[in-house]
Amino acid sequence: MNHFYFKDNQLYAENFLVDELAKEYGTPLYIYSKNQILKNYREINQPLVNSKLDFINCYAIKANSNPEILKLLAEEGAGAEVASGGELYLALKFGYLRNKITFTGVGKTDEEIEYALRENIFNFTVESLQEIKVISEIAHKLGVIARISIRVNPDIDAKTHPYITTGMKENKFGIDSKDIMDVFKTANELPNIDLIGIHSHIGSQITEVNPYIEAVKYLGDLIEKVEKLGINIRYINFGGGFGVQYKNILTHRYIPTEEDETTRYSPLGEHVESVLKMLSSYNKKLVIEPGRSLVANAGILVGKVLYTKQGELKKFIITDTGMNDLMRPCLYQAYHQVVPTALKDTGFETVDIVGPVCETSDFLATKRSIQVMNRGDRFAVLTTGAYGYSLSSNYNARLRPAEVLVDGDKHYLIREREKVEELHI
Ligand SMILES: *Cc1c(COP(=O)(O)O)cnc(C)c1O
Q1: Which residue's C-alpha comes closest to atom 1 of ligand 1?
Q2: pTM here?
């Protein structure tokens, strides 16, 4: 996260003091670093370029669908992985080529399918036989051909939080091994369906490369079986899910070191590199769908302390930044490093850093050691560029925060803070 750093005990975002940005735009405030996003994208993309394989690098836009961020990655040549008609609309509006858009999701509506078919997108990743039949019918009605990839559930433990595993037997995603050959056979015979590929996305925040190696091996074995049926698989898609670091992002003598059970984080390019050799032997075109890894460490959420309160058992730091701004701690028990924007030599105390929302689960951090914070102090919740704003809500009729993009010595407001009048339209 080298585009966010401390200098003279002050937190910077590229060339700007975070406190200055917070004064100008108010809090809660998401701040993104353009150069960090570009760096992440290039790190993941370069091994694919070097491999000389045909590939499409589809940004999973649910991670962060701010229009300026969408445009930035589209300009870099990224495709888009979309999970709803709304995301498809955004991808088309903000510069993604139709032939680089892939549509995933267990619950596509008829209207969404028709929309995507009319737009002639590259691919539907399908998750059940029933869905394939519906796509076939709608494509037939429109007189078009739907390109589809079948999402398989390889039953691999991605060793991540249970809410973000997607490739195990008990998950709703993909098609189970026991049914997979039948589904390929049936799908291949349906009218208006061009069965082009095979897909697996086994989960999110995967920090090791082994689950990918297992998944790609599973896909290779399956392709061999499927091709024996005379079905020509042209695309292999191994999803996204590349894990990022959430602890000890910024270190300083005034910041406590965080205990981290993960001892090694694979560098971004390594997930792709680890499977490239195997993939090149399959001789297919590749699709990958990174989301979090492109944007997570390129964003911070800045908030302000409203009150401090000593309870009987613990001390609370009550802030203006709640679960409606950043849902991950309450939704996934996610851990985000929280740092003051101005470091002081106060020693550390252990506190719960909470929001103003009327829910006990409304916290940014619990039992957290941090310098002594007082009313008016600002802090930054780190690594919040992915699944931060995109999961935000109006709960408690709170206004969604503003978003700012910094680029060297320039900064731009890329989404205005919501206004109360917008709450009833
Ligand atoms: C969410 C999702 C991704 C992206 O996952 P990350 O962990 O953000 O990289 C990719 N593919 C599919 C099908 C997804 O649902």
Answers
A1: 60
A2: 0.96
